[in-house]
Batch of 4 targets.
Target 1
Amino acid sequence: MAFEALGLDAEAVTGISPSVATDERDEAARLASHIGIAHRFVETHEMENPDYVANSAMRCFHCKNELFGILGAIATDAGDAVVVDGTNADDAGTGARGVKRPPRTCSQPTARSRVHKQDIRDLSREMGLPTWDKPAMACLASRIPHGTP
């Protein structure tokens, strides 16, 4: 939808992290190509944060904080760019509350508009996106019990 609204001014950014499966990265690139949107990968460094590595219930917070720090720098470098976060209404309370989002964020438009995962699937199917029925995929870190570094 960002690409429909902004055209060539839109860019998709995917974080590269040890907690994201390689297949997920490849699929992000294929989807961006299918849409026609500019796309880039950025490396995240949450593994360098001892608070993330401690693997507490705040793990998602530390990971998102790292990613949004990088996205904020990209937006700043681009001048008047806005970071649009794809969090949806079903994601509330998933551990990322309080994350320092970049100052120029569109403040989670899908979550604020009460758009749920099923709504996104329905819209994706209508738009002909190949990922409309893709199963949910939690990050690899979620498979490690909290408190286990």
Target 2
Amino acid sequence: MFQKRVLLSKYSNFKIGGPAKYFFEAKNVEEIIKAVKLAKRLKTPFFILGGGTNILFSDKGFNGLVLKPNIKFIKRNGNFLRVGVGVQISQLLNYSINNNLTGLEWSAGIPGTIGGAVRGNAGAFGGEMKDIITEVSSLDISEARFKIIKRKKSDCCFGYRSSIFSAEGGSVSGGKNSKTKEIITEVVLRLKKGEKSKIKEIINRNISYRRKNHPLGYPSAGSVFKNVDIVDFHEYEREYRKYLNKRFVKISGKFAPINDGKIPAAYLIAEADLKGISRGGAMISSKHPNFIVNISNATAKDVKNLIKLAKKEVKNKFKVDLEEEIVFV
């Protein structure tokens, strides 16, 4: 059933956002098609919502249709899992534990749905979605006659927090500058047989790390900015290979940590003396500076002001541009 004037703050980990003009949860591909056709007929923009974990909704809401594909199933064939786009990562992780399947331990503590994780090639603790994906199915909505497209991993253009689906230009469609042409519907994952005790041990270790180092007591969208490639620090570009296998590099007189050839955005924000800085009800976390947290009824404007400040100060100090990982709607 289509709903009207649904507060998007209820569907955002930030707990921020005004009302959507229309809201619809689709339980299957047929219902997705129905919703998209209606939006096109009404000539209204529509937004594809996953788990709402990396989204900042506008205080004014969304003047169109918010479509949430809530397709939830997990089907096993040996070490292969076929998973619906609306399955929560935590649910999938529990399934892997109960079935002694390893390969998902890195995702422990990551909120959201499998669809969002595929779109942004979610990753942590040295693992990424692309490591376990074999196939992704999506609904092509670019033409009047919709069709399902199946892609092997090699055709999905997975990169750092990106894929062919995010490269389309976001999840807003039907508007003047629409670029989105596909909606992910399901994914096939390949895991491996493992020992339940070892799987649970790794998961518990990763969750403990998050509890210790992330500000989980406040609403947030997780990491706001992508980590920065070492090659973006131009004085080190020629020596990039030299630093690939090192853990630290000297920048501005201090030793910055390196993780897979990238400088953590949290380090850069902390070195710009922005830990604990607040605007309205939002604050740059002192515990993890790449998190902006909602400490007291923050607005989207409050969060955007802090994002603007962080980008400005990091640019002034390090001469590099921070790129947002979160999506603005």
Target 3
Amino acid sequence: MTTPFLYRTVLFDVDGTLVDSNGAHAEAWAQAFVEHGVKVDAAHIRPLIGMGGDKLLPAVAHVEETSPLGTAIANRKMQLFSIILPSLRATAGARSLLEYLRDQRVDRVVATSAGEQEMRAILEQAGLDGLFSEHTSKDDAEESKPDPDIVHAALARGGGRPELAVMVGDTPYDIEAARRAGVAAIALRCGGHWTDADLRGATDICDNPAALLASWRT
């Protein structure tokens, strides 16, 4: 198991990694699609959570995010997700892990495919706001994960070097984005859905932030 002292920057995905929100995103997307005439259920969308809307909309409905229909679906999804938001909680050990890295003077940078407003609302709801050195979102990148744009943006925002950074995420999209940016990745199982085989590109795989913190402390 690697230790945080090998890294000066830790990049964090949010949904499924630090906040138990993947199921909520899938449900909100599914309802938004159905309301706009696209028959799909949350189980079909669940494997796509971790991508941004620029990837998910074409994959599900062959609709571009910037088209009138794509914009309408995405806006409705945000409305539906905001209704579910108050029920969301941090994953086990998320706050403790961030506090530990802060105390070790390791930079902590958000690198998420979510939009800026949604990302900040999720972190606030989970009680994790104020624990990051910097934030980046899909608003800082042309392409969402698994493209490496957000990882590049997070490194630039945090002033980090790829060889001294690690990405912590819960999907193959996080791992692929990190790989393409020349950054190591640690995968967490707490996002659900994915098997260890799906996450095999990661340097390490842990159950949740609490397990990662325990391994780093020892």
Target 4
Amino acid sequence: MAPSATAFVIDNASRDRTLEEVRARKGVRVIANDKNLGFAAAVNQGVRAASQEPVASEHLLMLNPDTRLLTALDDLEHASREYGLASGKLLDKTGSPQEGFTIRRFPTPLTLWFELCGFNRLWPSNPVNRSYRYLDRDLDEAGPVEQPAGALLMFRKDVWEQLGGLDEKFYPVWFEDVDFCRRAEEAGYKIEYTPGVAAEHLGGHSVSEIPEGCRAVYWCASLLRYASKHFASSAYCGVCLAVALTSVPRAVVGMIRARSTSPILSCITIVGFAVRRLLSPGTSGEPGQVS
């Protein structure tokens, strides 16, 4: 981190020793929420706080709590200055690049069908998945990308202001970074991938705090919100149908793995709001507001 940079840690009501450990570090500003506001709201909080600094930076870095920087950020800053947004390479704990996660293309209706049906897990090398997860690209190759992971993403402050920040209706997590990058592209900005900047990314730390029975509900809700914002109505209805149809077999698999009937409750919730959205595509109700 540059000597002049200020780190902001937004704590969404953690129940471990996070606050204690962070407050013991010098040069770190902490914003402690008394409840989990979601990833998007936390990022927006941090950006607003950084913008109020006496000498506010024009470049802001979004960094997941399970991500550790391994290199300087100079290349990222230069790229974001030129293009508006920039990202780096994510490595796992063994030092290997996280292929299929570090960068992706924007999901299409067909991509989401393949994800929901499990094709991408059962047949990872299928053409749809290879394209979606940039498996046809060398991660040592710099250049423009569509959707880098929000775990390591730098953007100019004016870009964030023009876009209105992250959409906080993607609650508590998932697809908010995809939506942000999609809106940035639609606004005429580009996103540059700079593999010279690297970070270790463990992955799944925050998601593991979500009760297992709620994860599928929240993921499908965020997926549908993304589809409602960026797909034509016919394609959106197709995704709603896919969510509803694939929820039952996924619930059956979940019951077998967990040896419990609890996945059925999640299935009923998912099918319910997917069918409501399918029958009333123009409804103003947000699928993310589920419990």
